[in-house]
């Protein structure tokens, strides 16, 4: 595609130089609907993005990219909780900070997660022991076929570990336009992860947690404004107890966490690090030096560089541990989203 077509470089946090046929900034559900109807008319692919912080473009996009910029935050002060209705195009971290500034606690563990609020439910963003599902009351979606807005309550969103209905049944034909959050006034800090364990639960404030989370993230994770990345590139693998025990017999120091469902979560970053892959580079793509779970655009990476690197990482971890990593990031080819595992298998 020629460079006369709009660039998506600023619209994907990996900073890949890819183009699209049409790029539309939508501030209302009606604008999203109109863009979709036009793409249906032309029979061209259609993709909605927030800040592009969880996508890997494999190629130029052969259709319309809509940037969801629906704004607006309303806050209801209820007896036991704060209820927030947040437009999908509100920046997530700004939301976290602005709630704390208003004296509303509950989102502090989720500070500095890149992306828009409307993207948060898709992978049920989570960090330092809190997931979106813990605070989400509902998600409003625009049904592109009916033109109506529908409300899905938390249960209907089918939230799972980095997963939701928006990656499956509601992946196409629906666009998230707003998210409803419920933050109880009876606040308890969640201090189960990393350096947060050093805070005293009796006196730690939400701001203390926020600053500790920001400090931990900034020390390990590259700032996408400086170095292109999409956060964790792979999901943490979930294995059976039997698989975990067999691995522990060979690698006694392996971090592992029991999940509520009885399975065990492994730390993908640790597995990658054990393969001595920190700093490993293919073309312009590299495994981040401080956090092996993050693949970076080190120097004018091409989509093919990132794919080759992801494939190499998956193969090395698979060969050593017989655990086969799956991307957390969504892979987008010219015609739309494709199966990320198939691309790197
Ligand atoms: P870390 O502290 O080095 O820990 C490595 C992994 O072990 C994490 O992914 C985490 O799983 C798991 N873990 C650590 N302590 C745990 C505990 N007490 N209970 C259960 N699981 C535990 O992780 P990190 O890379 O610095 O990341 C810190 C947090 O930020 C994690 O929650 C991580 O998911 C989140 N984060 C997410 C992204 C993203 O793009 N999705 C990027 C950076 C960081 P979980 O991932 O399940 O929490």
TrEMBL record:
<keyword id="KW-0560">Oxidoreductase</keyword>
<dbReference type="InterPro" id="IPR036318">
    <property type="entry name" value="FAD-bd_PCMH-like_sf"/>
</dbReference>
<keyword id="KW-0131">Cell cycle</keyword>
<dbReference type="Pfam" id="PF01565">
    <property type="entry name" value="FAD_binding_4"/>
</dbReference>
<comment type="similarity">
    <text>Belongs to the MurB family.</text>
</comment>
<keyword id="KW-0573">Peptidoglycan synthesis</keyword>
<keyword id="KW-0132">Cell division</keyword>
<dbReference type="InterPro" id="IPR003170">
    <property type="entry name" value="MurB"/>
</dbReference>
<dbReference type="InterPro" id="IPR011601">
    <property type="entry name" value="MurB_C"/>
</dbReference>
<keyword id="KW-0963">Cytoplasm</keyword>
<dbReference type="InterPro" id="IPR036635">
    <property type="entry name" value="MurB_C_sf"/>
</dbReference>
<dbReference type="InterPro" id="IPR006094">
    <property type="entry name" value="Oxid_FAD_bind_N"/>
</dbReference>
<dbReference type="InterPro" id="IPR016167">
    <property type="entry name" value="FAD-bd_PCMH_sub1"/>
</dbReference>
<dbReference type="GO" id="GO:0008762">
    <property type="term" value="F:UDP-N-acetylmuramate dehydrogenase activity"/>
</dbReference>
<dbReference type="Pfam" id="PF02873">
    <property type="entry name" value="MurB_C"/>
</dbReference>
<protein>
    <recommendedName>
        <fullName>UDP-N-acetylenolpyruvoylglucosamine reductase</fullName>
        <ecNumber>1.3.1.98</ecNumber>
    </recommendedName>
</protein>
<feature type="domain" description="FAD-binding PCMH-type">
    <location>
        <begin position="16"/>
        <end position="186"/>
    </location>
</feature>
<comment type="function">
    <text>Cell wall formation.</text>
</comment>
<dbReference type="InterPro" id="IPR016166">
    <property type="entry name" value="FAD-bd_PCMH"/>
</dbReference>
<keyword id="KW-0285">Flavoprotein</keyword>
<feature type="active site" description="Proton donor">
    <location>
        <position position="232"/>
    </location>
</feature>
<feature type="active site">
    <location>
        <position position="328"/>
    </location>
</feature>
<keyword id="KW-0521">NADP</keyword>
<comment type="pathway">
    <text>Cell wall biogenesis; peptidoglycan biosynthesis.</text>
</comment>
<dbReference type="InterPro" id="IPR016169">
    <property type="entry name" value="FAD-bd_PCMH_sub2"/>
</dbReference>
<keyword id="KW-0961">Cell wall biogenesis/degradation</keyword>
<keyword id="KW-0274">FAD</keyword>
<feature type="active site">
    <location>
        <position position="162"/>
    </location>
</feature>
<keyword id="KW-0133">Cell shape</keyword>
């Amino acid at each position: 595609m020629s460079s006369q077509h709009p660039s998506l470089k600023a619209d994907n946090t990996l900073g890949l130089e890819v183009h699209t046929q049409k790029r539309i900034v939508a501030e209302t559900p009606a604008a999203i609907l109109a863009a979709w109807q036009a793409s249906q008319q032309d029979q061209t692919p259609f993709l909605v993005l927030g800040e592009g912080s969880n996508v890997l473009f494999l190629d130029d996009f052969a259709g319309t990219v809509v940037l969801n910029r629906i704004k607006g935050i309303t806050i209801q002060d209820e007896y036991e909780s704060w209820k927030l209705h947040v437009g999908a195009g509100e920046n997530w971290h700004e939301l976290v900070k602005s709630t704390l500034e208003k004296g509303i606690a509950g989102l502090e563990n989720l500070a500095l997660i890149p992306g828009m609020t409307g993207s948060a439910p898709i992978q049920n963003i989570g960090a330092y022991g809190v997931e979106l599902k813990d605070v989400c009351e509902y998600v409003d979606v625009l049904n592109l076929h009916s033109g109506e807005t529908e409300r899905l309550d938390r249960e209907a969103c089918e939230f799972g570990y980095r997963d939701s209905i928006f990656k499956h049944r509601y992946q196409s034909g629906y666009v998230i336009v707003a998210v409803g959050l419920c933050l109880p006034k009876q606040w308890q800090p969640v201090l189960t992860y990393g350096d947060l364990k050093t805070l005293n639960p009796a006196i730690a404030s939400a701001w203390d947690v926020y600053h500790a989370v920001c400090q931990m993230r900034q020390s390990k994770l590259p700032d996408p404004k400086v170095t292109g990345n999409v956060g964790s590139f792979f999901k943490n693998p979930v294995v059976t107890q039997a698989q975990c025990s067999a691995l522990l017999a060979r690698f006694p120091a392996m971090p592992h966490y029991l999940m509520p469902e009885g399975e065990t979560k492994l730390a993908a970053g640790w597995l990658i690090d054990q393969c001595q892959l920190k700093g490993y580079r293919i073309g312009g793509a590299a495994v981040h030096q401080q956090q092996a779970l993050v693949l970076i655009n080190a120097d004018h990476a091409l989509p093919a560089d990132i794919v080759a690197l992801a494939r190499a990482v998956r193969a090395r971890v698979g060969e050593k541990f017989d655990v086969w990593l799956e991307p957390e990031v969504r892979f987008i080819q010219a015609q739309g989203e494709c199966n990320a595992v198939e691309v790197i298998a």
